[in-house]
Every structure is written in C-alpha cells, then in structure tokens.
Write the structure tokens for this entry.
Amino acid sequence: MKRLSALFCAVLIALAVPAWADTSRDDAAAIAQRVSGARVLSVERAERGGRAVWRVKVVTPRGEVRVILIDVASGRAL
C-alpha cells in the first residue's frame, strides 16, 4: 500500500510540473508543429511585448514559411 501511495504522489507531482515550469525548446517545437501542421525549421528564444517567447519558424506543406510565437511561461501559441 505504501508503494502505491508513493507512486500516486510521484504521478501527481509529475502532472503538476507543467503548471509552473517554463516551456522547453522541444516542447515549443512540438506545440508549433501541432497547431500549424507544419515542419519545424528552427526555434530560438526571443522577447515580445516584455514577455519571453519561443520564435518557431515552420514550413507548411505548401512551402510557406511562417513564424509561430510560443509563450515560454504558459506554452500557448500567441
């Protein structure tokens, strides 16, 4: 029973981490790929409007290059 409780606590902690952790470069690339359906070309950290963002450059299936900004703190596409 103690082992199950420890496992349960570990799972809860792991699920809670994204709520306060900064979005990683890899996470930003995955988010941009998911929202755009495009292939990621590059990811760099930048600042926009006083907030830290990931600037993700993607190429769409039609060959168009786009830039998607991902908020570092929240992981949301801007």
Q: What stands out?
A: The first strand starts at residue 39 and ends at 48. The mean pLDDT is 84.
